Fold:
Amino acid sequence: MHDTVADEIQRSVLNRMTCGQRLGLACEMSDLARDLCRARIRQQHPDWTDAEIIREMVRGAFSPQPCTW
Structure:
C-alpha cells in the first residue's frame, strides 16, 4: 500500500510530538468519540436520562453482539 502525501504529513507531525503530547491527543480523540456517541444516542432517544444514555454507551462498547443503531 502506498502512502499518500497526507499520510506522510501526519506521520511527520506525530513523530515531532512528545509521548505526552501523543497521549494528550489520544485522550482528546477519545473524549470526542464519546461526546459524538452520547449525542447520537440522545438524538435517537431524547427522553432518556443521562444514566440510560451512559448505560447504552457501555452496552454498545462491551456487548458481544453488534450494535444495530
In short: The mean pLDDT is 91. The first helix runs from residue 5 to 16.
